[in-house]
């Protein structure tokens, strides 16, 4: 097999890249190790930045998102039983975010790719990226019980942290930066209408809590728990009781309970691999960087990566210049590190460390009070949350 761009991974990054390339008249092949059903049901992020929403619309993948997604014009910060709303449009010149689950983004992009785009091979396991430093990289993969080779002009690894793409970059050229947090998120899906119409980020002496949603009838909620926690060790009643404690307010707001349909624990870590390019191999999304979910940046960073690559490849075709391709890693990393900074700030602002002292507690509350009492501080949070510019 031969193609211009070999894409490893059919998550939102790989699928969106295939769509962008198709719209630009550039052929690609997508290899995905899992089956279609798995890709369309794996639960991940659910907050789309303004820029991600705009890209999906421009790519022709926004119709169902606009119909079923939930536009949010702000978030609520809670601490000391008080409530403070951050108004995104008023602080950012009209920007907002969209609640639309990654599973739904993937469903939309898969349908478009199968109907209009190039080959999308499920259950096609990438085994290795070969000759990445040359003008003729290859992806060795296994599909339908047989090994095959995909010859490419370019390879884009959208295959996540554990994928093969990053391993093709020589160790002597690689630098990694990471931080592991001593806590995780116990997340639940519940068949109950959200108890608030926007996301609620709560700082509490017992730990962080987040009230989110997947639809008008499905709530998504999270609790800070110690690293290594077993989700099954928490009963449904214990989860709801703890959420009530941490989300409590001094007014008449109440948390609505309902049947819990899913429980899981998400570890919290930050990771960046530099560079994000080696020869004609380009890394995108979790293959290159991971952020703690507090800042809602993971999926949106992946979108920024593939938009940057697609623009650079179109520029190469139209001008003959490889300038933007050569700048890919530096361009993406500027945005990545801003997102890492914001995600770190949000995480340390709202989570209570296991060894936190009363001094640390007072500092957290002081930081929160500064945000809600200063338009400049509110604007900084709103601009970061709704999205950093691509490029």
If you had to describe this structure to a student in words, what would you say it looks like?
The longest helix has 23 residues, at 328-350. The model has no long low-confidence stretch (mean pLDDT 96). The protein has helices at residues 12-23, 36-39, 50-58, 63-68, 88-92, 102-116, 236-247, 298-319, 323-326, 328-350, 358-373, 375-386, and strands at residues 2-8, 28-31, 47-48, 70-72, 74-79, 82-87, 97-99, 120-121, 124-130, 138-143, 146-157, 175-190, 199-202, 209-215, 218-226, 260-274, 277-278, 281-283, 289-290. The protein is α+β, with helices and mostly antiparallel strands and 391 residues long. The radius of gyration is 21 Å and the shape is globular. The chain is 36% helix and 30% strand. The protein contains twelve helices and 19 strands. A hairpin with a 6-residue loop joins strand 13 (199-202) and strand 14. Strands 1, 2, 8, 9, 10, 11, 17 and 18 form an eight-stranded mixed sheet that branches.
């Amino acid at each position: 097999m031969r193609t211009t761009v070999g894409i490893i991974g059919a998550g939102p990054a790989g699928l969106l890249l295939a769509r962008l390339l198709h719209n630009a008249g550039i052929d690609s092949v997508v290899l995905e190790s899992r089956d279609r059903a798995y890709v369309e049901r794996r639960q991940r992020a659910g907050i789309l930045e303004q820029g991600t929403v705009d890209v999906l619309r421009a790519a022709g993948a926004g119709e169902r998102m606009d119909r079923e997604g939930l536009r949010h014009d702000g978030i609520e910060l809670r601490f000391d039983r008080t409530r403070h709303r951050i108004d995104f449009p008023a602080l950012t010149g009209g920007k907002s975010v969209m609640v639309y689950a990654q599973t739904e983004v993937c469903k939309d992009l898969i349908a478009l790719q199968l109907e209009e785009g190039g080959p999308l091979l499920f259950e096609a396991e990438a085994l290795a990226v070969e000759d990445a430093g040359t003008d003729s990289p290859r992806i060795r993969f296994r599909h339908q019980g047989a090994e095959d080779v995909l010859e490419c002009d370019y390879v884009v690894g959208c295959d996540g942290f554990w994928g093969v793409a990053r391993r093709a970059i020589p160790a002597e050229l690689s630098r990694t930066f990471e931080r592991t947090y001593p806590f995780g998120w116990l997340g639940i899906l519940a068949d109950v209408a959200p108890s608030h119409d926007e996301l609620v980020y709560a700082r509490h002496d017992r730990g962080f809590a987040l009230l989110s949603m997947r639809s008008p009838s499905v709530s998504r909620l999270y609790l800070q728990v110690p690293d290594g926690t077993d989700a099954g060790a928490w009963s449904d009643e214990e989860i709801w009781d703890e959420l009530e404690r941490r989300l409590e307010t001094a007014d008449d707001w109440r948390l609505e309970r309902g049947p819990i349909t899913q429980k899981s624990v998400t570890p919290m870590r930050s990771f960046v691999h530099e560079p994000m390019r080696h020869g004609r191999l380009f890394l995108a999304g979790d293959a290159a960087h991971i952020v703690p979910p507090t800042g809602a940046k993971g999926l949106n960073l992946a979108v920024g990566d593939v938009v940057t690559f697609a623009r650079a490849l179109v520029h190469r075709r139209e001008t003959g210049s490889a300038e933007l391709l050569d700048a890919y890693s530096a361009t993406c990393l500027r945005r990545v590190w801003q997102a890492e900074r914001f995600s770190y700030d949000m995480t340390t602002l709202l989570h209570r460390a296991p060894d936190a002292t009363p001094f640390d507690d007072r500092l957290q509350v002081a930081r929160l009070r500064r945000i809600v009492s200063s338009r400049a501080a509110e604007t900084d949070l709103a601009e970061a949350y709704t999205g950093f510019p691509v490029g």
